[in-house]
Write a structure and sequence with these properties.
This protein has 81 residues and is an alpha+beta fold. The protein has three helices and three strands; from the N terminus they run βββααα. The longest helix is centred in the C-terminal third of the chain and has 13 residues.
Length: 81
């Protein structure tokens, strides 16, 4: 199931995520730091979605209360609902 999540508080502005049978098939960030976000997307592809959510949840970027990985965790949570 492919879903779009609109991020809050980060340089990226949205994430497309595709999860099938509890496994992340793909993730794509729009905006933000291209190299870092492509790397994160590649790392989570094929990963159990709940495990990825647990690993990424709560990561902060500098003084911000969130980060692109934390927003990906929120996107995963939304997609799993």
């Amino acid at each position: 199931m492919k879903k779009t999540y609109y991020t809050k508080g980060t340089c990226s502005n949205k994430i497309d995520i595709d999860i099938e049978d509890g496994v992340i098939k793909s993730a794509r960030f729009y905006g933000g730091c291209p190299g870092n976000l492509q790397g994160i997307a590649q790392l989570v592809a094929g990963m159990d979605a709940k495990k990825a959510k647990d690993i990424l949840s709560g990561i902060k970027c500098g003084n911000k209360s969130t980060s692109c990985p934390d927003q990906l965790a929120k996107a995963i949570e939304m997609a799993l609902e």
